[in-house]
Design a protein that fits this description.
The chain contains six helices and 23 strands. With 312 residues, it is α+β, with helices and mostly antiparallel strands. The chain has three domains: 118 residues, no CATH class; 97 residues; 72 residues, no CATH class. The strands form seven sheets. A five-stranded mixed β-sheet has the order 12-13-11-15-14. α4 packs across α5. It binds zinc ion (ZN) (2 copies).
Length: 312
Amino acid sequence: MRRVCALCGRETDILIEGLCPDCYRKTHPLVRVKRDFVGIVRCPSCGAVLYRGRWVKDNKVIEKLILESLDYLGKVSSTSIESLELRYGLTTAIVRVRGTVHDLIKEYEEEAPVKVRYSEELCPRCRDMVNEKERAIVQVRSVVPINDHLRRLVIDITRKEAMRGEERSGFLRIDDVQGGLDIRLSDQGLARAIAYRIHKTLPSRVLESQSVVKGRGDKVITKLTISVVVVPVGRGSVIMYLNKPYYVLGYSQGTFRVLDLSSNETVNVRVGDLIRHGISIPKYEATCIEKGNTRALEVIIGSERYMINNAC
Ligand SMILES: [Zn+2]
Ligand SMILES: [Zn+2]
């Protein structure tokens, strides 16, 4: 008897639910990916992987995590991960699944793309070991939200200073924290060098404090905390300070020279005052306008318009 597939119209010897084996396969996948992505968190120090809330030192765990994201909709005889690249962020792993969705169809292979989100994090054991060595922390905070440029600048300074020493062991790690970066070190001298370099590079205020971690008498172990608050603005910046707009003319030795845009007066403001009262960067437009022989910078903040002579 001649049978015809309901979907492709081909003649076929085997008909399953009205379909030829090819069309049946196409409409009945063998494997389904259950999750939007599989999160893989690995400790960069010891290689342990987070598995169901526990850190496991077994390379098969990564495979397990990926395979657990799959649902099999037929008989599966083998699975293998074809490609997997562990790099930060989202990647796709290809899983090859062998089996069949129906007894009348011979085994075949199907590929399932599994999205993997990879990240690294110190496991508690390694974190303890690092904390054990920690003797200093440089807390870099910014008065305005920290941007990529500032972040990179701080990381570059840290790297350069850490390389300057004979041994590079003084540096432990940098953590992103609310409002800035924490630089953790095992060397207090290096901490001071980094803080000093940041202070020389950016308008900032530096405060140091020591605390006793453990021990007494001659055997005390202290931890140095250096707070570096940066004011990442310079000549040409427009800032809001104490509810008034200012144009920054320059910075030198802890003092900003600023132009009060509402009164057109030039005043000096200490970096400490800016930190104490806080500043913000308003949304503004600046255009250079030429009038005869003179040029003026027009700054528009909201509905207000200010002119600054000789600024452009
Ligand atoms: Zn068909
Ligand atoms: Zn670890």
